[in-house]
Design a protein that fits this description.
With 297 residues, this protein is α/β, with parallel strands linked by helices. The protein folds into two domains: 214 residues, Rossmann fold (3-Layer(aba) Sandwich); 63 residues, Golgi alpha-mannosidase II (Immunoglobulin-like, Sandwich). Strands 1-16-17-15-12-9-10-11 form an eight-stranded mixed β-sheet, with helices on both faces. The chain has a five-stranded mixed β-sheet with strand order 2-3-4-5-6, with no helix packed on it. A hairpin with a 5-residue loop joins strand 13 and strand 14. Helix 4 packs parallel to helix 5. The longest helix is centred in the last third of the chain and has 15 residues.
Amino acid sequence: MRAERSGLLLADRWTDYQLLDCGDGLKQERWGSYVLVRPDPQVLWPRRGQASGAPWKDWDGFYQRGDSGGGRWEFRRPLPEHWNIRYAPLDLTFKIRPTGFKHTGLFPEQAVNWEWCSQKIRQAGRPVSVLNLFGYTGAATCAAAAAGASVCHVDAAEGMVKWCRENAALSGLAAAPVRYIVDDCLKFVRRELKRGRRYEAIIMDPPTYGRGGSGELWKLEDHLWELLVECHRLLGDRPLFFLINAYTARLSPTVVMNLLTELMREAGGHVTGGEVGLPVAADGRVLPCGIYGRWEA
């Protein structure tokens, strides 16, 4: 098996999204027609050419941190409850909504992984069944379905699974072969094993901490390998790819690559890993946004 560190992949093919600027713990982003400012723990450097703490003048929504955790949005003008943006390279459309926990329902840096999965599925030349665990609002699910795969989308949060359905419909995929499952991911995988189901590809974006639909506690360091082993048993005789995304600073790409190398050692293939990031329009810097590990046949 070959393994190589691929460095940083830059999601630079957006038109409806742009990371305008970042500094002093904040990032200023354009989501379609609206500019939002949000905290980002990776932004440790000061804003270039600005006094520290000086606010941006151009914004429609600003997420204010609370003194005891959490926070709230401040809006300069009435914004719609939600709006849509399009990822043109894959002809996908997503619903954007500023949530109470600062997110918008989409991680634009993951576009590099959507494109990779889409390409692998299209080039396979055979039916591909994809399992997307911790699927959130389903951008990867939509990308895989648009490429011709059948997809099982799993998330413990009912609201996220509903949001995935909406994104699929917006992208013209309402009739695509997608199963929408609200469940604890590990429990669901074990049930799939008992049912005898198999998948050619697996995508997962495990959180650092989480709880399943029945209150099951998830802790990345304690439970990730257990989940990976069970997922490995779900792979069919001709697996195509296995993709792991992570946002926790506790993991390096090398750790994820080592996990995949150990997991897939008998299958051969190729393991790569690295960071994903977004270009900063104001100064050409790059904001790192997470890590990935990929196994492919």
